[in-house]
Amino acid sequence: MITSIGFNNVLNYISGLISKGRYVLDGNNVDVPILSKNIDGSTLTVNIFLADGTGGAVTDIKLIGTDGQVFADKPDTIEKLAAQGVLVIFKFTITEV
Predict the structure, then answer these.
(1) I need a labelling partner for 18 at 20 to 30 A (CA). Which of 39, 43, 82, 88 fits?
(2) Residue 90, class by beta-carbon neighbours within 10 Å (0-12 exposed, 13-18 middle, 19+ buried)?
(3) Considering the chain, what is the average pLDDT of its residues?
(4) Structural domain harbouring 89
(5) Global pTM?
(6) Which of 12, 2, 5, 11 is nearest to 93 (CA)?
(7) Is residue 36 a contact partner of residue 73, using CB atoms and an 8 Å limit?
(8) Which pLDDT tens digit goes with each residue over 74-87?
């Protein structure tokens, strides 16, 4: 059985592999910093924030790894207003089988 320390070690390792967020706004890639990372039990939560100031169609929201490759993605489409910020949450849960 994996201990809480074991879960924490695995999730800290995974967390260290994630360097930034990226999304497509009206066809252009936009990189954003990670807003926060949190480990709670067996779950890693990674938050990115799409700031206000520009509006348009937001697609292909991703987490980018330290190697420059896509670590995770959400292929959603969001119509974002210029006066609107958007919080995007990625959750990863480790389970033992």
Answers:
(1) 82
(2) buried
(3) 94
(4) 4-93
(5) 0.90
(6) 11
(7) no
(8) 988 988 888 989 99
